[in-house]
Amino acid sequence: MSDPSHEQLTQDQYDRLAEELAELEGPRRKAVVEAIAVARAHGDLSENFEYHAAKNEQGLLERRITILRSRLQNAEVIDEAAAAASGVVTVGAVVELEREDGERMTVELSSVGGVSPESPVGRAIVGRAEGDDVEVEAPRGAWKARIVSIRRSA
């Protein structure tokens, strides 16, 4: 990564996070505010489970909104054509690995619904090319694999 404070994303990954943020800030936030108002109308707030549940949901929602805003603000959208031409594993790459025990696995390098670049597998494969041998330092023990192929997600 070029700047550790910036999360690298493909344009598609950035757009998916932006869509989630728009949903949370719009319809989801409105629904939570309405749920709080309805629960408040039931009276005594000290023993009102619906009110406390709705307030808890609001807190979780606002935290997720804060996290998404920060991620988007600090995101670095990568040049996918340059990444594909580089021949090495970058964010957005779909990588096929063959473990030394013969097991094959395919992972997408993405912090949006894939294997994070900061994970043990992500750290082992970022910047590596097809045919490279890698060692993954995982919590349950290290294992070795070879990068069989690298392609871009569709």
Give the key terms:
Helix Hairpins, 2 domains, 154 residues, alpha+beta, 4-stranded antiparallel β-sheet, Chitinase A, domain 3, two-stranded parallel sheet, single chain
Describe the structure.
This protein has helices at 11-40, 49-73, 80-86, 120-125, and strands at residues 7-9, 75-77, 93-99, 104-108, 133-138, 141-152. The mean pLDDT is 91. With 154 residues, the protein is of the alpha+beta class. The chain contains 4 helices and 6 strands.
Blueprint (SSEs and pairs):
Elements: E1 7-9, H1 11-40, H2 49-73, E2 75-77, H3 80-86, E3 93-99, E4 104-108, H4 120-125, E5 133-138, E6 141-152
Helix pairs in contact: 1-2
CATH class of the largest domain: Alpha Beta
By CATH, the architecture of the largest domain is named: Roll
* Helix vs. strand class: alpha+beta
Query: Considering DSSP H and I runs of 4 or more, what fraction of the residues is helical?
Result: 40-55%
Q: What composes the largest sheet?
A: 4 strands, antiparallel
The CATH homology group name of the largest domain: Transcription elongation factor, GreA/GreB, C-terminal domain
Tell me the number of structural domains. Answer: 2
User: Which stretches are low in confidence, meaning pLDDT under 50 for 5 or more residues running?
Assistant: none
Tally of alpha and pi helices = 4
Q: How large, in whole angstroms, is the Cα Rg?
A: 21 Å
DSSP strand content: 15-25%
